[in-house]
Design brief:
5 helices; 126 residues; alpha/beta
């Protein structure tokens, strides 16, 4: 299945959004458009409108922390594929979200122009 013109919502910190935008812009044959929200409340508001192909979610946000962050996104958009973006300290939490419905997780320090597009395509094609 060929996936083109994917609109991805990144809910997380500005510094991570910069790395994600860079990785996706450098990816071969990339057709990703990234929208960003730094707060869970902003991300939930954006998800209330159509057009998001996938969500990348940091579980440590200023207005929500941990598994509750995942639960709120899953409740708001149960059919939108979800990629958890986590730190090395949050591996167990990331695995827990996958057991409860997230499609996958990717460690922040391993994001690059190959791993991120591949992970996004994988969760979207599933």
């Amino acid at each position: 299945m060929e996936v083109k013109n994917m609109r991805v919502l990144m809910i997380g910190h500005d510094r991570d959004a910069h790395v994600i935008r860079e990785a996706l812009s450098e990816a071969e044959d990339s057709a990703f458009t990234v929208e960003c929200a730094t707060l869970l409340s902003e991300g939930l508001k954006r998800l209330s409108r159509d057009g998001i192909t996938a969500v990348m979610l940091d579980l440590r946000l200023p207005d929500c922390q941990g598994f509750a962050t995942f639960e709120q996104i899953r409740q708001a958009a149960p059919h939108v594929p979800l990629l958890i973006i986590n730190s090395a300290n949050d591996q167990d939490l990331a695995r827990q979200t996958v057991r409860h419905g997230a499609q996958d997780y990717l460690q922040k320090d391993r994001i690059d122009r190959e791993s991120l597009p591949r992970a996004l395509r994988h969760i979207i094609e599933r």
